[in-house]
What does this fold into?
Amino acid sequence: MNFENHLAFAQSMDSKDPLREMRNEYLFPQQNGTPFIYLCGNSLGLQPKSAKKVLDQQLQLWQNLAVEGWFEGDEPWMFYHKELKRLMAPIVGAKEAEVCPMNTLTVNLHLLMVSFYQPSQKRYKIIMEAGAFPSDQYAIESQVRFHGFDPKDAIIEVKPREGEYTLRTVDIIEKIEAHANEIALVLFGGINYFTGQWFDMEAITKAGQGIGAKVGFDLAHAAGNVPLALHHWGVDFACWCSYKYQNAGPGGISGIFVHEKHFLDKSLHRFAGWWGYQENTRFLMEKGFVPETGADGWQVSCTQVMPMALYHASLKLFEKAGNMEVLRTKSKTLTSYLFYIVNQVNEKLGFEQFKIITPTEENDRGAQVSIIARTHGKQIFDHLVTNHVLGDWREPNVIRLSPVPMYNSFEDVFRTGELLLTLSKSI
Ligand SMILES: *Cc1c(COP(=O)(O)O)cnc(C)c1O
It folds into this structure.
C-alpha cells in the first residue's frame, strides 16, 4: 500500500475503515477534557461503554436473587461461563469445550504446568524464549524447583543472534532438536511483550511435539490481537489474560485452552477444586474428584461472576466487530502505517532517531511497534504523555506503541508521528 504522511490521507483511510464505528463503543482517558490518543491497548485495553451496565446488572441480580442467582434468572451463574466459552473459542481458534474462563493468567500458567510439565529424570528440561515476561520466568523457575531440578540446568533459553533483537524460527527449532531427548516442555509466548515478535507457533508446536515434548503458549499479547488456530495447530495448552487486547478490565479473568486430545488422559496431574468436578453431579458433594470433560475440568474455584461479566461485555464487541480476520486486516494496515510514519520522522530528521525492533515482516508481528530512541528515550516518552499520547515505556529503553484495530484510527497514528517529530526537534 502507498501510504502518505498527511492528515487528509489518514482521514480518508479512516472513512474507508469498516471498523471505524467501533471506537465509539469505548471510553478514552481524558485530561482536562482532552482525550488521549491511546496506544497502550497491549498493556490495558480500554473500557467498553457497556461495562458499567453489565456490572450493574449483576449487582442487581445479586441484590434481587442473592444465593438463588446461581440457579435462577435468565443467565444463572452456574452456567454463566458457557456463553463466554462460545465467544472466546473463535478468538483463539479453538472448540468451545477446549476453552474456559477462570482465575488469572500466571495462576493458570501454574495450573497448566502441573498437568503438562511432568518431568522425568531424563526428560525434564523446558525450552523458552530469552527475555520472556518476568512472571513467566518466575513461574517456570519455581515449577522447575518444585520438581527438584535446578533452573540453571533445566531451563533452556533461545536468544537472538548477536546484534539482533528477535528470534529466528530456525534457531528455535534447532535448539529444540539439539536437546531432543531432554525436553519435557516447550513454553513460549505467542507474541513477545518486549519486541512484539509473533512467533511461528505452528512450526514451534510441530518441532516440540516432534521430539516428544508438550507445547504450550502464553498468549497474553496474542489473544485478541492476531488470529490463532490453537486446535488446528495441535497446541497442547495455552492461557491468556483478558485485560490487554481483550479489554476486560484491570486484573480481568484469564482464559485457558486445553486441546481435546487430552480430555480423557488420566495420566495428567491436576490441582483440583470443586468447580472442576463433573457439572451434573457437582452438587452431590461426593468424595473422590471426577473432572468435568474438557477445559472446564481444570476449574478450581466457583465462577468469578463480576470479572466474567466484564469479559463478556468486551467479547460481545469482538462479536460485533465480526471476527479476528476482520480485525487483523485493519491491524496489518494500521501497524504498517505506524512503521511508515516512524520512518518518515527519521527521514525528516535526517538520521535514525527511532529504531524499530519489532519485525518488519507483517506475519511476524501483531499490533505492537517497539521503538528504541537513539537519545532521550524516556524524555520523549514523557513528552508524548504530556501531549496526550499514551503508549508505554519498558525498561531499559523501549517505547511501545500499539495501534489497536478495535478502537484506534489512522489519524491517531498520523498525529503521533507529528508529535514524535516536533519532540525530537525540541530536545
Ligand atoms: C501481561 C502478562 C502477564 C501478566 O500476568 P498476570 O498473572 O495477569 O498478572 C504474564 N505473562 C505475560 C507474557 C504477559 O504479557
User: Anything to note?
Assistant: The radius of gyration is 22 Å. The chain has 13 helices and 17 strands.
